TrEMBL record:
Annotated SUPFAM superfamilies: Fucose-specific lectin
PLL-like beta propeller domain mapped to chain residues: 212-345
Residue ranges of the TM segments: 85-111
Source superkingdom: Eukaryota
Biased composition range(s): Low complexity: 155-165
Annotated keywords: Membrane, Transmembrane, Transmembrane helix
Protein name: PLL-like beta propeller domain-containing protein
Ranges where the record places region Disordered: 119-183
Biased composition (Gly residues): 127-148
Length: 559
């Protein structure tokens, strides 16, 4: 079979190559289009030869020892000269294309430069850019963080968002929230959080367990949504496992939650009429319905556990009495039905509870409350596991605290720390140890003068260290450390923007990893991750938003 192919022949050095009518060239067509020709096909098989060198000088065979081989016909139907011509044509075409592209780019640059000059002239005429390095703006375009203003005639800055309290989410998402920047510093009436001029109690809840099969810690975060339902989200291995999910219900109080064993979580909240309800997660599923515990609580519940299977729930009724209900296994609650035990009173505000199973033995339950006064002392009561009895009266009163505040009790091994916020907004602290009993109360307002607008969140990582968190007057997170019996000399500003008291979750004790959550702008949950080291400070870290549409309202027993 033959084919008449056109040929490209070289002209002189001033003309382009010419295409002329070709001569008949024998085609090599094997019977199998995917196979190489063979002698059985009745065709000649060209020997394997190395490719011709594409440069101006043809090297000898010794210079082409690169292992590359190709098929070439014995009768020269692939001609070296023709190949060079084809390469020359291709090179010429490429040069023409590059020249066209370059011409277009130059034209675009000229047009763009003219547009920029026009914009600069407009900017110089109106002079409405922000001043300085992202400070407050003048004119119609306020300056914003990261958009420095300049004198008239400089390149224009992009318009900035209004300065109302809002999160500034960056476009890059992570497995554990979306990186977020908050204004620094936060000021102005339109930035005030609900804690400003008031006092924010704890309105978030968490429960943790460690999976015994893979030693992975799992944290459930809970909040009350704007729809009054309880919502939850799960953190595992440093990442959210899914979005926020509703547990349903209609509740007036913020939730309380706890895990009493591996892969079990219980969450509690007060519904209308003061009825306490709970729901349990176990065997990788939630109860289908909420279960009523009865009662008539006028404030949110608090919960703790002495050991596997044990639950103790307390709250304050409308008369200021502290009520308690407990179970030691399963769904058998004592007292049964809608009844609750009374621990007496009257107290005001919310209560806090801590259960301890010390290494030295002897179970303890510690309850803290505030007197039912606008200026209140903190009172406490203890259940002693050795005698299996409660102290007779509320006692050990101390401090000059806000009556609408909330006490914080932290129990660890043989020590109990009590913390509250004074009428002056300063931190008060007192300690009990098994060896020495109660210490004198300390007013830390004189040494670390920061005014607090939220309840205290505190946790101990051993007997020698206590970390304390609260929201300041600027709606930002503040941190203070007590280390080896000595308080730090200043509150550390960790940033953020809070419409609630902070909620600290120790995610990994060996590494000292802790995440601090709160209700942020727009009802979204926010958090930042820290590491508790050997020093006084944590250092400010990146903040994240975690979605959600949560309420910042709370339920509290009035003093």
């Amino acid at each position: 079979m033959y084919s008449s192919l056109p040929e490209v022949v070289l002209g002189d050095h001033m003309t382009l190559p010419q295409v002329v009518e070709g001569t008949d060239v024998k085609l090599v067509l094997p019977s199998d289009p995917l196979a190489l020709p063979s002698e059985n096909d009745g065709m000649e098989v060209a020997p394997l030869r190395r490719p011709t060198y594409p440069g101006p000088i043809e090297p000898d065979e010794s210079q082409l020892n690169d292992g590359t081989e190709t098929l070439m016909s014995k009768n020269g139907w692939i001609r070296q000269k023709r190949n060079r011509v084809i390469l020359a044509v291709a090179a010429l075409v490429i040069l023409l294309v590059i020249a066209g592209i370059a011409a277009g780019v130059v034209a675009g640059v000229v047009i763009n430069r003219n547009n920029n000059n026009s914009q600069q002239q407009n900017a110089g005429s109106n002079g409405n850019n922000g001043n300085g390095g992202g400070g407050s703006g003048t004119g119609n375009n306020p300056g914003g963080t990261g958009n420095p203003g300049g004198p008239p005639g400089d390149a224009p800055t992009a318009p900035t968002a209004p300065t109302a309290p809002t999160d500034h989410a960056l476009p890059t998402k992570t497995g554990f929230g979306v990186p977020t920047d908050f204004p620094d510093p936060i000021a102005g009436a339109n930035r005030d959080s609900v804690c400003t001029g008031s006092f924010c109690p704890q309105i978030l809840a968490s429960a943790q367990y460690t999976n015994v099969q893979n030693a992975v810690g799992t944290t459930f975060m809970f909040a009350r949504g704007l729809d009054q339902a309880i919502w939850y989200r799960v953190v595992e291995s440093g990442a959210w496992q899914d979005g926020w999910k509703s547990l349903g219900g209609t509740f007036t109080s913020q939730p309380a939650a706890i895990s009493i064993r591996n892969r079990r979580v219980d969450v509690f909240a007060v519904a209308s009429g003061g009825t306490t309800m709970f729901k349990t997660y176990q065997n990788d599923a939630w109860d289908e319905v909420w279960t009523s515990l009865g009662g008539g609580l006028a404030g949110p519940p608090a919960v703790c556990s002495l050991h596997d299977g044990n639950l103790n729930v307390i709250g304050v009724d409308g008369s200021g009495n502290v009520l308690r209900k407990s179970t030691n296994e399963g769904r058998v609650w004592e007292p049964s039905g809608d009844r609750w035990d009374s621990l007496g009173g009257p107290v005001g505000g919310n209560v806090d509870i801590a259960c301890t199973n010390p290494l030295s033995g002897g179970l303890r339950i510690d309850v803290a409350a505030l007197e039912a006064k606008s200026t209140a002392a903190m009172v406490s009561k203890r259940w002693n596991g050795t005698s299996s009895s409660w102290e007779r009266d509320w006692g050990h009163g101390w401090g000059v605290l806000k009556g609408n505040g909330a006490p914080t009790v932290v129990s660890h091994n043989t020590q109990v720390d009590y913390l509250g916020v004074g009428v002056d907004g300063k931190l008060w602290w007192r300690k009990w140890t098994q060896a020495d009993g109660y210490t004198d109360a300390e007013d830390l307002g004189g040494t670390v003068a920061v005014t607090l607008h939220s309840a205290i969140t505190a946790f101990a990582t051993g007997d020698a260290r206590l970390d304390v968190l609260a929201v300041g007057t600027d709606s930002r997170l503040k941190h203070l450390t007590r280390l080896s019996g000595i308080w730090g000399t200043a509150w550390e500003d960790l940033g953020g923007y809070f419409h609630s008291a902070p909620k600290a979750v120790v995610t990994d004790v060996p590494t000292g990893s802790v995440s601090v959550f709160g209700v942020g702008p727009g009802g979204k949950i926010i958090h930042s991750n820290f590491r508790v080291g050997a020093g006084w400070s944590w250092g400010r870290q990146q903040w994240y938003t975690d979605e959600g549409n949560m309420t910042s309202n709370w339920y509290a027993s009035a003093p």
